Amino acid sequence: MTLESALSFFIAVFIFGITPGPGVFAILARALVNGSAACFMLALGMTISDILYLVAACYGLAVIATNWSELFTVIRIVGACYLLYLGWKMWHAPLDLTQTGQEVNSSSGFMGFSQGFLISASNPKVILFYIAFLPTFMDLTALDNIDIALAALLTLISLMSGLMLIALFASRARRWFKSERAVKRLNRGAGSIMAGAGLFLITRH
């Protein structure tokens, strides 16, 4: 991969990462409730899942994605149901906006990572995106492990930058919510966003 193609790849993945979808909706909801710092493991889980899809695409696993469509459908439905559950929980649970979002223990960090991984993994069209996307920037017939590692690193930096930028902007919006009524609206708004992400996934074909 040349420097020019690497830069183009980085920018394209960044744009792909901030495009509205289940992952972005989940980041918005988490940042509104707990702040940007609480989104790091969630974003990392999404990014690692995307990287796995990227590597799978690089190694030509499109055939598996096609032949195992039933499995991907199950993953998508499970992920969508989980998002709906999180949305319901956010809608009914009280919010404590005095939390800074900085105190994230290992358990919540692991849960955030798992949630992010599931959200991204439940969208098998990501691998199809990369399959169509990669030939634009690299010669797949001459692809070696170094190229794949570089593409994975660029994807990690680009996606994390985009998702955390969204989280930062969303977390600052929390400052607008001070009254009890506003907190209730924030709670239901965040829950609606999360549930919307679940509906988005479950209705995709």
From TrEMBL:
* Compartment(s) of residence: Cell membrane
- UniProt xrefs under InterPro entries: LeuE-type
Sequence intervals crossing the membrane: 6-28, 40-65, 71-88, 109-133, 148-171
Pfam families from the UniProt entry: LysE (PF01810)
Question: Per its UniProt entry, which superkingdom is the organism in?
Answer: Bacteria
Going by the UniProt record, its keywords in alphabetical order are: Cell membrane, Membrane, Transmembrane, Transmembrane helix
Q: What's the protein's topology in the membrane?
A: Multi-pass membrane protein
Primary location recorded for the protein, binned into one broad class: membrane
Name by which UniProt lists this protein: LysE family translocator
Organism of provenance = Neptuniibacter pectenicola
